Amino acid sequence: MVSASIVIASYAAFQMMADIASLRIVTVAGFSVDAGTFVYPFTFTLRDLVHKTAGIRVARTLIITVAVLNLIMALLFWLTSILPPDMSVGPQVEFGMVLAPVWRIVFASILAEVVSELIDTEGYRLWVERVTHRYQWARVLVSNAVSVPVDSLIFAWLAFGGTMPNAVVWSIFVSNVLIKGATTLISLPGIYLVKEKEPEGDS
Asked: How crowded is residue 56: how many other Cβ atoms within 10 Å of its Cβ?
């Protein structure tokens, strides 16, 4: 079985990688996609693994903690990009061109993550408490089915609404949902990698 510490570290790492990659918009099969979409969907299942192995309080705390870390990361990239370079090395403009944050995208990404991941947490909890402890794959499927569209809708329109044609924004939304939905199906078996935490009456 995978330990809770590995799952927690993986969740944080995937969230931060997704936020960095989201700074670039690419095209896939004719759809506009923020590149963070290729890794971010795994965080929903990783969050479910944290919930399963460490409990809901840890899952909620982790969501907020990683959001703060992502904001600190963006501030660090911004500060690094505006400080004068050591000209004995060179102008080093590439760093700022690639990693200097677009603050609207940063805030849209972090807000979408917090809202959708908290919704995912509640969906997971309600399924376990009100429906059944069996069919663990269904916990992931149901909670992600609600949180993925919410995440994609918030991010696409807060990050790009009004700055890109509406058709492009909707393209980003649709591609996000499709890719995240496919990733959910791929990652479903992962819920069986960790041991269930003993109930402690948390809610």
From this structure: 20
Mean pLDDT over residues 99-121, rounded? 89
User: What amino acid occupies position 94?
Assistant: E
Q: Is residue 199 one of the residues assigned to a domain?
A: no
For 105, the domain range is: 4-193
Which residue matches tokens 């929903």?
44
Q: What is the CATH number of the domain that holds 189?
A: 1.10.1760
The pTM of the full predicted model, rounded to 2 decimals, is: 0.84
- Please choose, from the candidates 33, 4, 11, the residue with its C-alpha nearest in 3D space to the C-alpha of residue 195: 4
CB 41 within 8 A of CB 179: yes
Domains in the chain: how many in total?
A: 1
Higher-confidence residue of 195 and 121: namely 121
Which residues on adjacent β-strands are paired with residue 27?
32
DSSP letter at 131 equals: I
Q: What's the Cα-to-Cα distance from 172 to each of 40, 137, 160, 179, rounded to whole Å?
A: 14, 27, 9, 10
Alpha-carbon torsion (119, 121, 125, 131), positive or negative: positive
